Amino acid sequence: MTELVHTRADLARFRSAYPGTVAVVMTMGALHEGHETLLRAARERADHVIVTIFVNPLQFGPTEDFDRYPRTLETDLEVCRRAGADLVFAPAVADMYPGGAPAVRVNPGPLGEDLEGASRPGFFHGVLTVVLKLLQLTRPDLAFFGEKDYQQLTLVRRMCRDLDVPVEVVGVPTVRERDGLALSSRNRYLSTAERAVALSLSRALAAGVAAAGEGHDAAAVLTAAQAAFGVGGSGARLDYLVLTDPDLEPGPVRGPARLLVAAWVGETRLIDNAPVQLDPAG
Ligand SMILES: Nc1ncnc2c1ncn2[C@@H]1O[C@H](COP(=O)(O)OP(=O)(O)OP(=O)(O)O)[C@@H](O)[C@H]1O
Ligand SMILES: CC(C)(CO)[C@@H](O)C(=O)[O-]
Ligand code: BAL
């Protein structure tokens, strides 16, 4: 049985009645198979699963898609039921931020200004602030996040470590369509033609991974990924395509690495990433 609550008081009532372990899966709704995979992974590890559905105004820039972000609570509940979630917490903005936009926010540090943070100023302040609030409200043993939002996952792990938040953060590999496109709620914005163009991102990652598998060094891996993206000619507008340390630390890259890409397809901004194994001696 999946219960739906909207207020923090009702959430607290259900939460305090749960014996055993609790996992949380935080989402902005418009649930797809990527979310469902997170829910099933949580179900396997914990006695109780809480899903949060909240389109967090704090993480949207003034020209971004907060107003038009898809809100599909009824079908989201079906996904949650199918995946065996115990509780869905879908608060209103006024319940999450009763005092209005918070003056005190989590500072994500230098990594929060890079990559996604460079294109979306304030984004990670907003994300980490709501993630910390939702962790306080749900008090989970485990929190599940998708690798699709790799920088977010990295920063959530770092916040929990740096601020001694007592939760195990679990990363879940990216779920893709058969042709490689990473599932994302924002894929709904794409026209048929744009969806074809959006394959530039996963194509670039696959080319980079293949180049690394052939023993090429970091520079050649990046060149292969850029060529496959079709820089300048794919119809997608590249924001960044970078090969970094798996913890997103600055410095030389060798051994295990991460290839990350962000691009605009029409009005829609998409991100993707993949693990890459480089020669440790390279
Ligand atoms: N394809 C996917 N595979 C695995 N996890 C995913 C996938 N898509 C989203 N998630 C994870 O689900 C959680 C909630 O994400 P969110 O609700 O923002 O969905 P989204 O598809 O990433 O949306 P958007 O398109 O707005 O970025 C995050 O931890 C996110 O990384
Ligand atoms: C973690 C999150 C639910 C915070 O609003 C959001 O950034 C998301 O859906 O990835
Ligand atoms: N999927 C991460 C949340 C965001 O893009 O706003």
In short:
With 282 residues, the chain is an alpha/beta fold.
Rg calc: 19 Å
CATH architecture of the largest domain: 3-Layer(aba) Sandwich
Question: Count of helices?
Answer: 9
Strand order in the sheet with the most strands? 1-4-3-2-5-6
How confident is the prediction overall: mean pLDDT?
A: 97
Structural class: alpha/beta
| Percentage of residues in helical conformation | 25-40%
The CATH class of the largest domain turns out to be: Alpha Beta
For the terminal residues, how far apart are their CA atoms? 53 Å
Q: What's the SSE pattern?
A: EHEHEHEHHHEHEHHEEE
Which residues sit in consecutive blocks of at least 5 with pLDDT less than 50? Answer: none
> How many domain modules?
2
CATH topology category name of the largest domain: Rossmann fold
Shape: globular
Bound molecules: adenosine-5'-triphosphate, pantoate, beta-alanine
State which percent range the strand residues make up: 15-25%
CATH homologous superfamily classification of the largest domain: HUPs
Task: Report the biggest beta sheet as strand number plus sense, adding barrel if it closes.
Answer: 6 strands, parallel
